[in-house]
Amino acid sequence: xxxxxxxxxxxxxxxxxxxxxxxxxxxxxxxxxxxxxxxxxxxxxxxxxxxxxxxxxxxxxxxxxxxxxxxxxxxxxxxxxxxxxxxxxxxxxxxxxxxxxxxxxxxxxxxxxxxxxxxxxxxxxxxxxxxxxxxxxxxxxxxxxxxxxxxxxxxxxxxxxxxxxxxxxxxxxxxxxxxxxxxxxxxxxxxxxxxxxxxxxxxxxxxxxxxxxxxxxxxxxxxxxxxxxxxxxxxxxxxxx
Amino acid sequence: xxxxxxxxxxxxxxxxxxxxxxxxxxxxxxxxxxxxxxxxxxxxxxxxxxxxxxxxxxxxxxxxxxxxxxxxxxxxxxxxxxxxxxxxxxxxxxxxxxxxxxxxxxxxxxxxxxxxxxxxxxxxxxxxxxxxxxxxxxxxxxxxxxxxxxxxxxxxxxxxxxxxxxxxxxxxxxxxxxxxxxxxxxxxxxxxxxxxxxxxxxxxxxxxxxxxxxxxxxxxxxxxxxxxxxxxxxxxxxxxxxxxxxxxxxxxxxxxxxxxxxxxxxxxxxxxxxxxxxxxxxxxxxxxxxxxxxxxxxxxxxxxxxxxxxxxxxxxxxxxxxxxxxxxxxxxxxxxxxxxxxxxxxxxxxxxxxxxxxxxxxxxxxxxxxxxxxxxxxxxxxxxxxxxxxxxxxxxxxxxxxxxxxxxxxxxxxxxxxxxxxxxxxxxxxxxxxxxxxxxxxxxxxxxxxxxxxxxxxxxxx
Lengths: 241, 462
Known about the structure:
The complex is a heterodimer.
Chain A: E1 2-8, H1 19-30, E2 35-41, E3 54-57, H2 62-72, H3 75-85, E4 89-93, H4 95-100, E5 103-105, E6 112-113, E7 120-137, E8 140-154, E9 162-166, E10 176-177, E11 179-181, E12 184-187, H5 193-196, H6 198-213, H7 224-239
Parallel strand pairs in A: 1-2, 1-3, 3-4, 4-12, 5-7
Antiparallel strand pairs in A: 5-6, 7-8, 7-9, 9-10, 11-12
Helix pairs in contact in A: 1-6
Chain B: H1 3-21, H2 29-37, H3 41-46, E1 53-57, H4 62-75, E2 80-82, H5 90-99, E3 111-115, H6 121-125, E4 132-135, H7 143-146, H8 149-160, E5 168-172, H9 176-179, E6 189-194, E7 221-227, E8 230-234, E9 247-254, E10 259-264, E11 274-276, H10 281-296, H11 301-309, E12 317-323, E13 326-332, H12 336-349, E14 353-358, H13 377-380, E15 384-390, H14 394-403, E16 411-413, H15 417-427, E17 433-438, H16 440-452
Parallel strand pairs in B: 1-3, 1-4, 2-3, 4-5, 5-6, 6-9, 13-17, 14-15, 14-17, 15-16
Antiparallel strand pairs in B: 7-8, 9-10, 10-11, 12-13
Helix pairs in contact in B: 1-2, 2-5, 4-10, 4-11, 10-11
């Protein structure tokens, strides 16, 4: 069995240690004897919608988001939509999450169109949310560090990834954090998010492997270090939000 | 000195005396008190300095460069006042001034050299009229506090636009973000950089904050990458490229514990290479920056070279402590670029290393520990014999080592500073080195524990 990961725009959209998510996905697959190949997609290159099982789309700086938004309006945007329609999975964080949604509405000026693959919309908020983020999801605790001024609102086709316990999450109003739609996941958790939330890493791995390998059962791993880090980070979030 | 400044100085001095009577370091609070009484205290106290004030900022290399510069100006016969203890927000600067001034606020020196936190530069520039401002480099660092590098650079550039024509900027030409900071400055700018084609690789390293042109957004092309986005860069779109280097190292010879730089350039040619008695390319950059500032202050290259060759490293930076026959070497890390530079120096040294690695998430460390995932643990792990992991976020760090490929039996998580030091000493055979890789507040805590264990003096006695 093998897994193909495409890292979208790694030089522009990979801030706050988001690279750790790709490392985590690859290691957790390798530890189970699954071969992994990772490819980067840079702005201006051509995306092959057939290739990847799993896309990673991280957060970026303003300049990066502008360049990427333009690239997604080219043929690469259609290719990515096609890949998602054919069953590829994705993890998107912060700016990547916003760009998978319908649009980003800045405080002034025209709105920046997103890919529209997730039924979420983001608008610029007045207060920047910076701090530890602890949320509860059906499959486990979600812990990370948020740092965003975009407020994201879910449409009817997306459901929340988790419910905020400490921090702000999507918009600081409705207690939702992140979104799930089909095999696409969006979150505001940096941290990186996957190392300390192994249930989410494994959920994505299963979805990704299913695309070419049918129903997949992952061997369990010894996650004692992962869960110890999750517990200690959750304690920090409760004590020092 | 106005009545208000005199009152502010007295209030700060009293705070300082009280803290020191309690055995505390007094590296920030007295400054906070002084600035609360008189926000103009820094300007008032530095106005009379014969050789002016130098501000040193940037993500990495501030402390080492500041200390090198203090030695350089001393070699020129001047008497510097500077902020020694890495306390580099405006309150730290005010505290340093207080400690080095009399009760009327007159400083005991004729030139000020201040290390300034990059997020505080704009505020400090509002409080002082510097003669020289140096920016070493800008990398992602403590993003929870500084936010993104682009934003930080924009803020710095607009504060530089308010500087008078008499202020000289000294900028790193090899850093595309820093090289543009002087675009709106009305006065002169001195650029420094490394022009040795054998230094650096061709492949961009995985953490990069400036892979795209700051002017036209095209992907930059690198002839050589030295560290992160620092190197020999050009934009294939608009042709933007490194500004001409006024101070350039045309030959860099790196050895295990030191390097030699042969200089050329419009204002800094020298016949003999400069000896930099510290390992690693990043210290070569620090020395180059110090020479460029020396030239901006009209100090000759031979004087600067003499001071640099005799330089001793700063508190917490490459400092070695003897403990029960083990050599404990402290390496301060605070962001991925600094961490990768430290890793590079360890790998150049060769062999397998015993580490005591400490990660904290206090404000001064950065509350977001995500940055460890940008650091290149994958390159470090094969050179690790054993790692003792500690700190407020020890478990995050242990996880990073695990995903970097470190075998479980080569790592131990230990809570408590003294217990972690004890464990690291016990695991290292006598005569061996333990490399302490630590974030800032964890370093303070480890130093404190080492002092209690009788291995080192409290740092403000240095």
